[in-house]
Amino acid sequence: MANILIIEDEKAIRNVLRNIIAEENNSFSVDDAEHGKAGLDLMAEKSYDLVLCDIKMPGMDGIEVLDKIMSLYPDTAVVMISGHGDIETAVDCIKKGAYDFISKPPDLNRLLNTVRNALDRTQLATEVKVLKKKVSKKYEMIGDSGSLSEVKDMIEKVAPTEARVLIMGPNGSGKELVAHHLHEKSERSKAPMIEVNCAAIPSELIESELFGHKKGAFTSAVKDRKGKFELADGGTLFLDEIGDMSLSAQAKVLRALQESKITPVGGDKEIKVNVRVLAATNKDLQKEIADGKFREDLYHRLSVIVIRVPGLNDRKEDIPQLAEHFGEKISEEQGIAPKKINADAIKALQAFDWTGNIREFRNVMERLYILCGPEITGTDVEQYARK
Ligand SMILES: Nc1ncnc2c1ncn2[C@@H]1O[C@H](COP(=O)(O)OP(=O)(O)OP(=O)(O)O)[C@@H](O)[C@H]1O
């Protein structure tokens, strides 16, 4: 179903357009108005996916109507109807944000193509909006405890800079989430954030993973392959679990950071890269340095700014908000009706030792949502939370 509005002062043209469009697809609902003001009045009552608007009209002309639509309803596609002699104005309208223009008298095929394309664009724009909303919801950082507020303040200050950031905190506390926020709030957000889980890559492969390789560099290198540094060019490289990186890989990362250049495995040319590096670890890097497992010079390169993400045990006052947040998400994802979490349940949740932090908390909430009745109680938490 698409809502289409025709604003055109010539009755004959209005009727022709209306008939052609309405006959094309019976899911199109077509309204018309004989001047700009009447059109805008209709738009105030109903949302339209597409407006076809004449340029020359008595009173408010098409350009004025277009300006109004662009400022009030920027998601609506506008196609201008140009008469003889106002093609130039039609082109100007496109610069102002109109999707396209058609000439009078309307050519059937061109009109229908334009209508279809304009509606496709509107639908795509709506889908992109929904997806963006979903993605930003996925990365929502819930909680306003003092310690989490400090983290959020740091993100606001540090994100727009080029500073490297070392994110420290226990497993599942939200380090990756912090990295996403730092990237999204930076100038680099239009370029990708590339993630590397240093713990998951065998040490003999990490060099090729980070810097890429040339065909023939080793037996399985059947073609050239770009590394993560190159893929993140212009954006952010997130080195997760950096404390698990081998000393030899650390030496190479250090060189890449010092020189902003990398050399693919088996390659002889250096490649310049423009990458902001964020790193995260759950290890105590000072201890790793003392044990000879982490390079001190790399630590200093990475830790221009250090953000410490608190474990859930240090911010149990956030548990009511987190319970509500995950409750909503789980109910949406699993198609389960929203449940009430009573005060005893919250108290019981706050009494637990959350060594797995937010990740563990989310899993427990999911279990409770699936296993309990419409109201989650303290007894439910005792019964199901640790199983
Ligand atoms: N403050 C928060 N509000 C809502 N969700 C959160 C919050 N912190 C973390 N999460 C969620 O908890 C899960 C674990 O977070 P994340 O992966 O960022 O942790 P991590 O510290 O990087 O874990 P690991 O050490 O295992 O890599 C994710 O699903 C994340 O979205």
UniProtKB/TrEMBL annotation:
PROSITE patterns: RESPONSE_REGULATORY, SIGMA54_INTERACT_2, SIGMA54_INTERACT_4. GO terms for biological process: phosphorelay signal transduction system; regulation of DNA-templated transcription. The modification 4-aspartylphosphate is found at D54. SUPFAM superfamilies: CheY-like, P-loop containing nucleoside triphosphate hydrolases. Residues 141-370 form the Sigma-54 factor interaction domain. Transmembrane segments: none annotated. Pfam families: AAA_lid_14, Response_reg, Sigma54_activat. Residues 3-119 form the Response regulatory domain. One of its GO terms (molecular function) is ATP binding. Coiled coil: none annotated. Keywords: ATP-binding, Nucleotide-binding, Phosphoprotein, Transcription, Transcription regulation, Two-component regulatory system. This is Sigma-54-dependent Fis family transcriptional regulator. It comes from Phaeocystidibacter marisrubri.
